[in-house]
Design a protein that fits this description.
- By secondary structure, the chain is α+β, with helices and mostly antiparallel strands.
- It is built from twelve helices and seven strands.
- The strands form two sheets. A five-stranded mixed β-sheet has the order 1-2-3-5-4, sandwiched between helices.
- A hairpin with a 2-residue loop joins strand 6 and strand 7.
- It starts with a strand and ends in a 6-residue tail after the last helix.
Length: 291
């Protein structure tokens, strides 16, 4: 990809690779979506007018120990929801929960990669692209891409007055927390695909987010994100990651999570802030929570 694309160029470049972005969410739009996503055929008169767009929209790469992660930031909430309706719901106008502020799509058919492979093949003297495409497409992960989408807004729906930051600064910090939180999930999925602990994964992803965005891990702020305290559950994201048995004893679970946050703060310092992803992998190898 081209790094650091901002404004309309971010979506334009992506639409050339994922032409379903030209298909506005609507009832009955699924056939057009299928042609675009499955065969790379953009609709006639293709346009991105269903996106409002912003000069702050950005397509960038984040370097991680598991390789680069491609991230799209969309400033307007409406654009974020439109993107998710198109990619995640096949251009159906499905409602997107307000609690969703970021998402990672894996295994997306990337028609930009197809176009590049075709150009390389023809330039080398090949004369049967159809057969070559069929051969290449059989390879695992062929012509597929992974994409992280993040939105604007206060992280975990925590207002600025509940943080050490002013209103404008909290918007900026929230964006960086959200970005690196999602990248942490990508790193864990790539390096440790079978090591999944839903709550611990969220706690450690917040570690990377806070260290990357602020230079330090603030246990009190991390606890506020999840809605945990030494006395139990307050109000926050924790319930999204619990099963029914855990929800039945939520105060006990919340106290355990809070204790883990406090212990992480004691473990973290300048070295961990300098390399948050290395700290992430250390925490994943020696979890403080078993769920």
């Amino acid at each position: 990809m081209v790094e650091g694309l901002k404004g309309p160029d971010a979506l334009e470049v992506l639409a050339r690779r994922f032409p379903q972005l030209y298909v506005a969410p609507a009832e009955g739009a699924q056939d057009a979506h299928r042609l675009a996503a499955g065969r790379g055929i953009a609709p006639e008169g293709a346009t991105l007018s269903h996106f409002e767009g912003s000069p702050q929209d950005e397509l960038r790469e984040v370097d991680t120990p598991a390789g680069p992660v491609e991230v799209l930031f969309l400033e307007h909430r409406r654009d974020f929801e439109t993107f998710l309706q198109i990619i995640g719901h096949k251009s159906s106008p499905a409602p997107i929960a307000r609690t969703v502020g970021a998402i990672t799509y894996r295994g997306l058919p990337d028609w930009g990669k197809v176009a590049n492979a075709k150009e390389t093949y023809l330039a080398s003297g090949g004369d049967d692209w159809g057969s070559e495409f069929a051969r290449l497409a059989k390879e695992p992960g062929a012509f597929r891409s992974e994409l992280v989408i993040i939105s604007e807004g206060p992280y975990s729906n925590v207002s600025a007055d509940e943080t050490p930051f002013g209103t404008e600064e909290w918007v900026r910090v929230s964006r960086e927390i959200r970005l690196h939180h999602e990248c942490a999930h990508v790193v864990c999925r790539r390096i440790m695909p079978d090591d999944v602990l839903s709550v611990w994964d969220e706690v450690t992803a917040d570690v990377v987010g806070l260290l990357s965005a602020t230079g330090r891990y603030d246990a009190a702020l991390a606890a506020r994100f999840l809605g945990v305290s030494a006395d139990g559950f307050t109000e926050g994201r924790l319930t999204e990651y619990l099963d029914d048995e855990q929800k039945a004893r939520i105060d006990e679970v919340a106290a355990e999570v809070h204790d883990a946050c406090v212990r992480i703060e004691r473990m973290s310092g300048p070295a961990e802030a300098a390399d948050p992803f290395a700290f992430l992998l250390d925490l994943k190898r020696a979890p403080l929570l078993a769920f």
